[in-house]
């Protein structure tokens, strides 16, 4: 019964929280409207998501979250140094192809989101065969170092979580 009402309870909870945060209120009307949306949106979109993600290692997910938050903070500082620093350093951007070992669709999607969320990197494209991600890097000084960093810091933990 509860699963039919809330197919993804965490998604519903996050939607309600985001609604209240965006509206900056805890008024009964907004709580009611946010709850209605939190129930309706996942139910409407359920047919679009036929395979449910299974997180097998929540501890690994929490560790990855810590790594992403730390990397985001450090990358913000580095991007600020690049933008505010000498102009010559701004012309060091480029594209890399990140070969993927991971095959889980949820893991690959999460990897692309994480890469895009870290300042200075943007996931641009996934190849049709899902074997590589094309990534734009603001400060591309050593392509192999970037590949090794992305694979070790993000892909390996995501494989542990999703595969």
From TrEMBL:
The gene is mnhE1. It comes from the Bacteria. Its main location: membrane. The keyword Hydrolase does not apply. InterPro entries: Cation_antiport_E. It is a multi-pass membrane protein. This is Na(+)/H(+) antiporter subunit E1. GO terms for cellular component: plasma membrane. The keyword Transmembrane helix applies. Belongs to the CPA3 antiporters (TC 2.A.63) subunit E family. One of its GO terms (molecular function) is monoatomic cation transmembrane transporter activity. Keywords: Cell membrane, Membrane, Transmembrane, Transmembrane helix. It is found in: Cell membrane. Pfam families: MNHE.
């Amino acid at each position: 019964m509860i699963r039919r009402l809330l197919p993804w309870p965490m998604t519903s909870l996050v939607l309600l929280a985001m609604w209240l945060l965006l509206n900056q209120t805890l008024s009964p009307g907004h709580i009611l409207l946010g709850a209605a949306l939190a129930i309706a949106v996942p139910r409407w979109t359920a047919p679009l998501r036929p395979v449910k993600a299974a997180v097998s290692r929540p501890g690994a997910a929490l560790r990855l979250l810590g790594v992403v938050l730390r990397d985001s903070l450090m990358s913000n500082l580095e991007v600020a140094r690049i933008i505010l620093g000498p102009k010559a350093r701004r012309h060091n951007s480029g594209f890399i192809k990140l070969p993927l070992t991971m095959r889980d669709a949820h893991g690959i999607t999460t990897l692309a989101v994480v890469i895009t969320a870290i300042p200075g990197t943007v996931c641009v494209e996934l190849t049709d065969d899902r074997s590589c991600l094309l990534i734009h890097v603001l400060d591309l000084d050593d392509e192999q170092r970037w590949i090794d960093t992305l694979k070790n810091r993000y892909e390996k933990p995501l494989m542990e979580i999703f595969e």
